[in-house]
Amino acid sequence: MVKIITDYGFCFGVNYAIEKLIETGKKTSRVYLTHPLIHNVPENERLMKLGNASFYEKGLTMDKKDAVVLSAHGHTLEEEAIFQGKCEIVDATCPLIIQRYLKVMKEDKDISYIFLGKKNHQETLGFLSHFPYFDLVDSTLDLKAQLDQIPLKKKCVFIPQTTVSKSSWLAVKDYLEKHTTLVQVMDICPLYAKRSAQAIQAIKDLDPQTNYFIVCGDETSSNAKEIYHAMALANPNLKGTIALDSSCLDFNELKNKDIYIASATSVNKETVEKLKADLELAI
Ligand code: SF4
Description:
The protein has three domains: 2-8 and 191-282, 3-Layer(aba) Sandwich (Cobalt-precorrin-4 Transmethylase, domain 1), CATH 3.40.1010; 12-94, Rossmann fold (3-Layer(aba) Sandwich), CATH 3.40.50.11270; 104-188, Cobalt-precorrin-4 Transmethylase, domain 1, CATH 3.40.1010. The protein is an alpha/beta fold. Helix 7 (166-179) links the parallel strand 8 and strand 9. The protein has eleven helices and twelve strands. Helices cover 41% and strands 19% of the residues. Bound molecules: iron/sulfur cluster (SF4).
């Protein structure tokens, strides 16, 4: 049996960024990206062809008729400044991320500001560039050790990257509630959180001898890795992997097992359905 256990297909923000790229490609002769639009290498390549886009290279001469499309996860102010006045700037940042920017409390010397995220992720870099008064807590390192180093004031604002794990978000929130008063807290992205919760619920009680899980996603995708880790944590003996298609799977490992597929947010519906169909044929 092969079963898809989460919502699947592109999330709202990825669809939004794709529409921006395709729209721009239709009306502009040269379209550039500074980073992959979404974290899915083959899909990004396909979209770049569709949107008639190429990667911007430093020193390239831009024309007012050209356009640059800035990534779905956000961008730094420095990156935006490179293109100011030189070409059309198309901001493809997910509207959920933009909404958060609009709500973040302004700097106040009596408040501590904490951002939880992956240090080099595009969303983290973009956020910290817009709000440099935040201290970064890297979600891939020891959270308590980092928080212990930050001299917290009586009040604190806590914002996470949209796709960190719910468990790391909770750990930081718990710590801050014990050491300060939270005057503003934002949650992780509800669409990603829903997929993660669906995946955990479906596999947490499965017998590791007779079951296997796959997160359909690209190795470069932060949310694919987070969903994988959340599933591995929920059922530590259950084997699983991240894969975009069946070509990189070890079929010996899958033999006589039921397979549960969760979907990352930067994978289209057809890819998830094809993975399911290929597995059904192969096992
Ligand atoms: S996962 Fe959420 S925040 Fe990230 S692009 Fe998708 S909808 Fe936006």
